Amino acid sequence: MTDIRTPRRATHVAWILEGERVYAVAPAGPEPFTVVEFSETASSIWLHVDGDTDVPSIVRAVADDWGIGTDEVAEGVRSFLRQLTDQHLIAWDAAAGEHPASASM
Amino acid sequence: MNTHDETRPTDAPQASKAYSLRESHGPSAATNAPDEHSSVVMPHAVAVVLLAPAVQHVASAHGIRVLSIKGAILAEQGLRSPRRPSDVDVLVEPGRFDDLVALLRPMGWRDRDGKVLVPLPVSGSALAPHARTLEHARWPCQLDLHRYYPGFLRPAQDVFDRLWDGRITARIAHADCDVPSPMDHWLLAALHVLRSGDRAQLRELEAAAAEVLRGREQDLLTRAGELGALGPLRESLTRLTGATPNVPESDLELLTAWTRRIHDPGNLPDAFLEQFRGAGGATRILLALRQVLPPPRSVRAFHDVGDGPVALFRFYLARLALTPGKMASYLRLHRSGRAKERR
């Protein structure tokens, strides 16, 4: 199934790119002062979550960044997006109407 | 609530460790982490950027108005050269200051000094302790919560309301934050460097204001008057605007206190007395005890006392010996203040 939903960074999230890594805090989440550090690859996904890029495009962009095939990154990207959702770091278009972790992406 | 385990990439079969999130901690928490791979030390440069928007969000979610002050925003507003701030400063609406401190406490923020803060005098103050410094085991920087800004001589709530009305939105770490307008921020920063006695920074600020606020000199004087900063910043404002501002008579008493504060910050019996007069019974006892026996951390920071219990014990003994004389001088000041009030 093709997923055309678009993730976006949650509006309350504060984040910065320091070196190759993203650090973020979600003060509207259950732990307002817990900062998470993204791995380098996770950071590259985050940078493509801009509210305009849908999931397949993010997969392609990350594959391009790392010079590998989309098959090699697709599952990791989707899994990571679920993780970001659970941590209140990203949100999805209201039109989707379903939790991305329980839907095919 | 997320634990270390929950932040690991448990459901990323292809990516395993590649796509991972780790909780980032201050040095003390990282040292105690059970698994070195489960936590990392948050760089200080990261902490000072992320903390302001986090505090802003928590405060505004509870209806508490706060303004992020100083830090990188001053540079973004063109008021000083970029530099890495050492901590994070937030100005809180005075009436909700205690609420915010209470809100942050269960979130892990601890009051570093445990200062006794008596409610601010309604007519304004130049002497009252102005901030609490909070620390968090997971954050490698301190959070300074200010309940008023010394040097703005008008009543604290009035000053905050005016700063709030003039606020602008700035992006800090990709999040919207409320900050003072460049003009208000300049006044605040100038008061700060006057208090810290940093002439070089004051010159830098004045040079920046000459550029950023060019053509708005009269507005600057008007704004300084509204906030009660004409007296404290008289010299700077004269250099900037070419006109010597008239300090309102109503500001003169606090201006005298302000001048004493910046010239002799370590020895201000009237600062203690102002607190003492505004305090209730139990708080008065606490204030007096703190005055006689300050916490060891403050003793070591401000009284050149060496490490170890013996040096500390000697300091406290010497302090106790001085107490009767000091109390007598406080009493004299208190009586003369009362006599002045009656007149």
Secondary structure layout:
The complex is a heterodimer of chains A (105) and B (343).
Chain A: E1 7-9, E2 14-18, E3 21-25, E4 35-38, H1 40-48, H2 55-66, H3 70-86, E5 90-92
Antiparallel strand pairs in A: 1-5, 2-3, 3-4
Helix pairs in contact in A: 1-2, 2-3
Chain B: H1 4-7, E1 21-25, H2 27-31, E2 39-41, H3 44-61, E3 66-69, H4 72-76, E4 88-92, H5 97-104, E5 110-111, E6 131-136, E7 139-146, H6 156-165, E8 168-172, E9 175-179, H7 182-196, H8 199-212, H9 217-227, H10 234-241, H11 252-263, H12 269-278, H13 281-292, H14 296-302, H15 309-342
Parallel strand pairs in B: 1-2, 4-7
Antiparallel strand pairs in B: 3-4, 5-6, 6-7, 8-9
Helix pairs in contact in B: 7-8, 12-13, 12-15
Descriptive notes:
The complex is a heterodimer of chains A (105) and B (343). Helix content of chain A is 36%, strand content 19%. The longest helix of chain A is centred in the C-terminal third of the chain and has 17 residues. In chain A, strand 2 and strand 3 form a beta hairpin. A 3-stranded antiparallel sheet of chain A has the order 2-3-4. In chain A, strands 1-5 form a two-stranded antiparallel sheet. The C terminus of chain A is likely disordered. In chain A, helix 2 packs across helix 3. Chain A is an alpha+beta fold and 105 residues long. Chain B is α/β, with parallel strands linked by helices and 343 residues long. Chain B is built from 15 helices and 9 strands. In chain B, the strands form 3 sheets. In chain B, strands 3-4-7-6-5 form a 5-stranded mixed sheet, with helices on one face. A two-stranded parallel ribbon of chain B has the order 1-2. Chain B has a two-stranded antiparallel ribbon with strand order 8-9. In chain B, strand 8 and strand 9 form a beta hairpin. In chain B, helix 12 runs antiparallel to helix 13. The N terminus of chain B is likely disordered. Chains A and B meet through strand 2, strand 3, strand 4, helix 1 and helix 3 of A and strand 1 and helix 3 of B. Strand 4 of chain A pairs antiparallel with strand 1 of chain B, so a sheet runs across the interface.
